[in-house]
Write a structure and sequence with these properties.
The chain has nine helices and twelve strands. It is of the alpha+beta class. It folds into two domains: about 130 residues, Jelly Rolls; about 70 residues, Winged helix-like DNA-binding domain superfamily/Winged helix DNA-binding domain (Arc Repressor Mutant, subunit A), CATH 1.10.10.10. The strands form four sheets. A four-stranded antiparallel sheet has the order 4-8-6-7. A three-stranded antiparallel sheet has the order 3-9-5. It has a three-stranded antiparallel sheet with strand order 10-12-11. It is globular.
């Protein structure tokens, strides 16, 4: 069951939810509930990681920053996982730049406490390893998706990914950020978003995205969405709620 983090708040993080009450009690004192805002930088490529984040209602994006200032998303982290997972394999610096993609809450743990919590074959380590397997599947599938599939397919896939990770049907999202996520120019995003809205699949006004017809979005998405979702379900079980 999901663990209550503070009075009036429940964090629906799937890794933490799968810990037993006893295992969770061991790490609870090291967890801090924090709010992250759109574009908050969580860690930067090549620099030390200070915290790992277990998203509750927020979603994070891992980016590769290029010399010309542009960025491409290589992975999305929501309530199925954790940001800063490279600490699990002994890294001390980030291999990607992590930013907040959808504002909300996360539970964070210092890098030092996380290393201690995953020392040996602990329950947290085993779950984090299973999540890491799903995350690697997402990253590798994204490479093929960005190379082979149309912007319409990728846009539908990305909306479904966000819908899975954010509580509710609506979330804040700018066209500038969408362009970064999809690795395309902003006019292309405007055109596709307009087509989706005319078809009654979404409502998109002043940076607020609302999913209207998920079933049709699933038919428009490429197979990459289903493949990655299946990998996470194998690793962490089917999400609830």
């Amino acid at each position: 069951m999901y663990q209550s983090m503070s009075e009036g708040h429940t964090c629906q993080n799937r890794i933490l939810a799968r810990l037993s009450a006893e295992d969770y009690a061991r790490i609870a004192p090291q967890l801090e509930l924090v709010k992250t805002n759109l574009k908050d930088v969580l860690y930067e490529r090549g620099r030390p990681i200070s915290y790992v984040y277990f998203p509750c209602s927020s979603a994070h994006s891992n980016l590769i920053m290029l010399e010309n200032g542009s960025a491409v998303e290589v992975g999305t982290v929501g309530n199925e996982g954790l940001s800063g997972v490279e600490l699990l394999i002994g890294a001390s610096t980030a291999i990607e730049t992590g930013i907040c993609q959808v504002a909300g809450t996360s539970l964070r743990m210092s890098a030092q406490d996380f290393r201690a919590a995953v020392q040996g074959k602990t329950a947290l380590r085993l779950l984090a390893e299973r999540y890491f397997h799903g995350y690697l599947s997402q990253v590798s599938q994204s490479v093929a998706c960005n190379r082979m599939h149309t912007i319409v397919q990728r846009f539908a896939r990305w909306l479904l990914i966000m819908h899975d990770r954010v509580r509710g049907e609506e979330f804040s999202l700018t066209q500038e950020f969408l362009a970064t996520m999809l690795g395309v120019h902003r006019p292309s995003v405007s055109m596709v978003a307009g087509e989706f809205q005319k078809a009654g699949l979404i409502e998109y006004t002043r940076g607020q995205m609302k999913i209207i017809d998920r079933a049709v979005l699933e038919t428009m998405s490429c197979e990459c969405y289903g493949i990655v979702r299946s990998q996470f379900e194998k690793a962490l079980g089917t999400p609830h709620g």
